[in-house]
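This entry is set out below.
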Amino acid sequence: MTGTTLDVTGTPGTTIDTLRFATAGSVDDGKSTLVGRLLHDSKSILADQLEAVERVSQSRGQEAPDLALLTDGLRAEREQGITIDVAYRYFATPRRRFILADTPGHVQYTRNMVTGASTADLAVVLVDARNGVVEQTRRHAAIAALLRVPHVVLAVNKMDLVGYEEQEFDRIVEDFAGHAAELGLPGFTPIPVSALCGDNVVDRSAHMGWYEGPALLEFLETVPVGIESADAPVRFPVQYVIRHDEVRHYAGQLASGSLRVGDRVTVHPSGETSEVTGIDVLGTYAAVAYAPQSLTLRLADQRDISRGDMITAGAAVPALTQDVRAAVCHLADRALRVGDRVLVKHTTRTVQAIVKDLGGAAELTANDLGTVTLRTAEPLALDDYADVRRTGAFLLVDPADGTTLTAGMARLP
């Protein structure tokens, strides 16, 4: 799971604390400016980067540096004043490290938001205070709900253009709350901001005395993320089998839960069982390993285990199924149609499948959100995406050229 707090020995602690978050908003809602302000006011940009932005801004006749230039890295983005691709930025404060995915606002780049938010612990959804909740806001909220992003911030931007009025903020929050309830979002945190003026981005605003909540950075620094509950199901997809001195080692990344020496485990899809006799993390023996650590595993018995198998422990086991139903976002320019033959890439396993149904739709085109029913050639050890994001997600791939077609989030009956 992203954002996990682990030290290098594999023990939960406070040595490393990283928050992955994504920003989303309609065109001209000020998303790139907000990200630029966040980096600028938190002193997370280099002097030469700021000088370059100031130089470009002056050449355009702008008095103040256009902070959106800090994130719109592509020439086409700068020329059109829009974000096209996902731009990742890394910064840190004394309290936390951050991986930020700045995602596009245009409808035709919705698939890029899916990419940016798929591994996020938190999504910041921007709204222009003058326009309120619009179609793209609802679309971005739907994607956050679809991807089960644990935390959502509603950043009501451009408060300076509505006189910093509390009533305008409350109206938008109430409207968004209605849509959030319909989508099944567990909750959201509303924050009134002005990215252009710096209100409530890094520092508290002096213009909105009626707002008693945190500034955006303060919230990002303190929102609890990362550590899975102690009863998270154990999921270990086998990536490689290594033979050393007649002993088999199974290598991969622990997708969920914690695994201990002595644990009884089950191998899927064979159903064979064994016991963990050794765990190595970073080449060092460990009595216990936690997701998302990469490790090698040794078992007490010789089992027929290969890449793509999944090792689990405990009573919570994945569904072994060839009939897969999922919520999807179509990513490719090529349409997905009923009857298409595809590859399903699920963790380290890839199997052939046929598209049986698209929720009644004739086809899915790029950026469409929908549902799909698949029949796979071999069983998959699948979790409901709502329970385990890593092992509930998959990709559909074109078998002809390897193009990624569709991102799927499994829904088990």
User: Anything to note?
Assistant: The CA atoms of residues 261 and 276 lie 5 Å apart. The two ends are 24 Å apart (CA to CA). Confidence is low (pLDDT under 50) at residues 1-15, 74-78.
